[in-house]
Amino acid sequence: MITHPIFENTKVAFALKSDAELERAYFLFKMISIQPLVKIGTAATNFAIKASLPVEGLIRVTVFNHFCGGVNEKDCLPVIDKMYEKGVSSVLDYSVEGKESEFEFDAALEKVLKIIDFAREREAMPFAVFKPTGFGRFYLFEKLGKGESLTEAESEEWQKVEQRFDAVCSKAKENDISVLIDAEESWMQDASDNLVTKMMRKYNTEKAVVFNTLQMYRHDRLQFLKEQHELAKREGFYLGYKLVRGAYMEKENERAEKLNYPTPICKNKFATDTNFDNAVKYMLEHLNDMYMFAGTHNEDSSYLIMQQMHEKAIANNDSRIWFGQLYGMSDHISFNLASKGYNVAKYIPFGPVKDVMPYLIRRAEENTSVAGQTGRELNLLTKEKKRRKLEEDV
């Protein structure tokens, strides 16, 4: 492994944060670290928004401004430009969830196409992103995933889903931007995987434009990657994959137990970490055939990628390898990697405050459940506050 850790450098990590922003971040992570408070806070926030109480202003200046770039694309520009000065690119993520109508799916499509137009002139925005169920009903993905036949009306509906995927991938290729397609629950994922592979086959002819997402807390994903590799070699297209650990673990395990089938989730965190790292190694060994976006907040996995790149004499800025973290988290990884010339992008959620709340609530709940994540953020923020105080006193 790398013998000189780079992620302890808080001066680089928090260079863009003012003292006030540093204090706000510390306050937020302190609150998030108290699990009962998160439960009470999320319930109260949900109630306040549903009851149309005037809480949006408070949410905006606290949790929203920390984890989101703004309410629209232009609103995000100061964040995008500021981060890019430090070498960190942006992935604008329209984080509005849980929509169900054709009108809303078409609106989501228009939003993603607009982001691609917005990104075309900006070197700081090499990727677009969307969620499969942002473009079609979860039920359709689930039904196809089970191998069930669609009705005539459902088949027409699914054709529209395919057309939305195709419209984004086509425009991305035309504008030399890559598109990251999120993964969701396992019981809808097969249909999504098939559709994304279809897009890769069509658009990844010269390089990876279309990226699928592999949730490595699923024990079958490494095998899936290897099978897709064989397919891509046979048919002559490039693979693009975003590797993540995964975001639906509790839901997956609960459903498996309730419906009495083997859980698709690895038996423990160690097995998940091993699975993730093995996928990293596999992709780096076959870099001539595939492009990797490593979405990770894990320092050891980040060091592993750096080490492997060094051993294989792969340049830090090789365009086939990207690191990614969420805006408002793990700045010590993002900005320190960027300072060493690695390709780094932050996911920047945006959208109307009210519509983005489900995303923000999930983020807070995830932070309380991921062992060590919040404590790590607090330690680094405390270290930087002390460093600045010493600097002032000198």
Helices and strands in order:
Layout: H1 10-13, H2 19-32, H3 35-50, H4 56-67, H5 73-85, E1 88-94, H6 102-120, E2 127-130, H7 138-145, H8 152-174, E3 178-181, H9 186-203, E4 210-215, H10 221-235, E5 239-244, H11 249-259, H12 269-285, E6 290-295, H13 299-311, E7 321-326, H14 331-339, E8 344-350, H15 353-369, H16 373-393
Helix pairs in contact: 2-16, 3-15, 4-15, 6-8, 7-9, 8-9, 10-12, 12-13
Quick gist of this model?
The protein is an alpha/beta fold and about 400 residues long. About 60% of the residues lie in helices and about 10% in strands.
Give structural notes.
- By secondary structure, the chain is α/β, with parallel strands linked by helices.
- The protein has one domain (70-355): TIM Barrel (Alpha-Beta Barrel).
- Helices cover 58% and strands 12% of the residues.
- The chain is built from 16 helices and eight strands.
- Strands 1-8-7-6-5-4-3-2 form an eight-stranded parallel beta sheet.
- The longest helix has 23 residues, at 152-174.
- The mean pLDDT is 91.
